[in-house]
Design brief:
About 35% of the residues lie in helices and about 20% in strands. It is of the alpha/beta class. It has one domain: Alpha-Beta Complex (putative 2-phosphosulfolactate phosphatase), CATH 3.90.1560. The chain has a 7-stranded mixed sheet, with helices on both faces. Strand 4 and strand 5 form a beta hairpin. Helix 5 crosses helix 6 and helix 6 packs across helix 7. The protein is globular, with a radius of gyration of 16 Å. The two termini are about 30 Å apart. InterPro entries: ComB-like (IPR005238), ComB-like_sf (IPR036702).
Length: about 240
């Protein structure tokens, strides 16, 4: 079996070190959870971008149907949908979602040199684990926590632990100390909603007015079977079976 390592925040990503590696990016609250839900709800693709300006440039050039969603330092962006399923599910079908967030979409951009790049969340971790076992069992796998503005975040580490724990025969993988710690942390904390609500980011968002139901949604494990593959040439994330279209 292959090696499994963990990067704790996007600022620690060294793109040149990801060449030849299989990479999975997490931003549980909320970028990769929103991407998972958008693809499951019928989005044609998700286009993660660095910032609102880049989103507007891509939108201006687009000849396909699209919507823009995002946040900047947790704040709403004029002309963009909030990056939450509640606001997107009724308008996303067959459209491209141009998405900008403070951390998760930046982490995806910085990981583009990986040989295979995926986004994952609690919502689709069991399916992602099965995919890694089927197609990447001998690869060097890097699990990336997006973090928040240079700081470690508990919910992303928990997401990593969830994925490792769902990788059947976990004892056969060559886990780094960080990967093993994430696995043990997950096994000792099975109430995902409570953990996410009490994370620093969860508390900050709810104090700013976020409805708790948004966090409760992101805490659901295995709700979808989507495999979210990033096409580094097209800059799009699609569900696995549609990735080459």
């Amino acid at each position: 079996m292959g090696d499994v390592q963990v990067i704790f925040k996007k600022e620690d990503i060294r793109p040149e070190d990801l060449q030849g590696k299989t990479v999975v990016v997490f931003d549980v609250l909320f970028a990769t959870s929103t991407i998972t839900a958008a693809i499951a709800d019928g989005a044609a693709s998700v286009i993660p971008v660095h910032n609102p300006e880049e989103a507007r440039i891509i939108a201006k050039k687009s000849t396909d149907s699209f919507i823009m969603a995002g946040e900047d330092q947790g704040k709403r962006i004029e002309g963009f949908y909030p990056p939450l399923r509640t606001h997107l599910s009724s308008v996303i079908k067959d459209k491209h979602l141009i998405l900008t967030t403070t951390n998760g979409t930046v982490a995806l951009h910085q990981s583009r040199r990986a040989s295979d790049l995926y986004a994952s969340s609690l919502l689709n971790n069991p399916a992602m684990a099965d995919h890694l076992l089927q197609f990447h069992k001998d690869d060097s796998i890097i699990l990336i926590c997006s973090g928040s503005n240079g700081r470690y975040t508990m919910e992303d580490f928990y997401g990593v632990g969830s994925l490792v724990s769902h990788m059947r025969g976990v004892e056969e993988w060559n886990l780094s100390d960080a990967a093993m710690t994430a696995h043990l942390f997950y096994k000792g904390n099975k109430d995902a909603a409570h953990l996410l609500q009490n994370s620093r980011i969860g508390k900050m968002l709810m104090s700013a007015g976020l409805d708790q139901k948004e966090i409760d949604f992101a805490a659901q494990e295995g709700l979808f079977n989507s495999i979210l593959i990033y096409d580094s040439v097209k800059g799009q994330i699609k569900e696995g079976k549609h990735a080459s279209n």
